[in-house]
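Incident review: delayed structure delivery

Summary: a single-chain prediction request sat in the queue longer than the usual turnaround. Root cause was a stuck worker, restarted by the on-call engineer. No data loss occurred. The affected request and its eventual output are reproduced below so the record is complete for anyone auditing the incident later.

Affected input:
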Amino acid sequence: MRALIICPADRTKAAFLARQAPLALAPVLGRSLLDLTLAHLAHLGAKQILVLAADRPEKVRDAVSRGEAWGVRVEVHPEQRELTVAEARAKYQAKESEGWLPPPHDIVLLDRLPGGERSLFDDYGNWFNALIDALPEAVGDRIGMREFAPNVFVGLRSQISQDARLEPPCWIGNHTWVGPGAKIGPNTIVESGCYVDHNAEVADSFVGPDTYVGALTEVRGSFAWGHGLLKWQTGVFSEVADDFLLCDLTSRAKSQRRRVGLAGKAAASLALLLTWPVLLVGWLRNRHSGKPLLTPRLAVRAPLKGGGRPMETYRYHELGGFNGLWKRWPELCCIIRGDIAWVGNRPLTPSQAATLKDDHEQLWLSVPSGIFSLADAMGCADSFGEDARVHASFYAVQRSWRKDMEITRCILKRFLKGHSV
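Output delivered after worker restart:
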């Protein structure tokens, strides 16, 4: 059996949802609209599905591949404009009228949730209310999603601080972190991969995937996605330039990363290979504590190119059950990724970076983050204290490969003698 999907193209009343991807790929509680529709048609018996895409067809093609994920054969055809159902039927069904799913499932205009009656893209209120209404039914086909409390849903590998407050109804997607004192809900959807910092408040809102909501930031009656903030009831839009308030965690191009040489990456790979039992030791120490083995952290850095661009952000992890250098063991992966270097200034959270008072202290962010720092070599107990700030500024001015080697030797010497680092 065959079916055809028409992806929506120009929808001026839903332009915010199409900023990062076509509307067909708009996030719907951890999945995309196209994903849900393909699964629905496959359940009805479709074996071949043709997808017509006028808006960024290459992204649609990358998202569906050949349809293996749904057990069907999917083909994506680019179109110059969005066809109507009648036009699609005349163009693609007239020659071969047999072997199609019965109407209206044979040709689907992708502007509704499967089985839904509400048109999603007539205004932002329709979209938002459709997602809120779908919360209870969506749990069944999202792997790992659980009902954390009545009408409060939390996804796989998400971490919610004990001090956070979740008010129903609300949805928190996979791999999302909610910090101490944060308040989520009511009527709130936080999609997958988000980071809601401490004491932030999000209510009557939709937070798009991989979005950082800063400490003490309040989001109410809004769509927050990347740097974009839109009041969904009025359509008023603003671009938030301050990464400490709102930012996209994934949109930074790989070319903007501070690159680590191949030798440094090879050394990090070798170190991971030789010290992997540390992960097992950490697990043994943590298995009865109820604490996560790997704790996610968010750090900021200045962009490589100036021009008043917002701060860049990246994630790293700390290893539970250890203090000192062993706690930083997962950061070896960040060296391989190119996010940090072997030697630099220690990573700062957005809230810490916001407290750097003047140009001298802000030199901390002018060099790459590193596993080892000058403050470590000098034995600073407080990694963000006054002494650490002075050492960070000094290192930023005096940085050289000789200085890096000197810091490394000093830290290894302290480590082998059993001194704290």
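Verification: The domain at 136-248 is CATH 2.160.10 (UDP N-Acetylglucosamine Acyltransferase; domain 1).
Action items: add queue-age alerting; document worker restart procedure.
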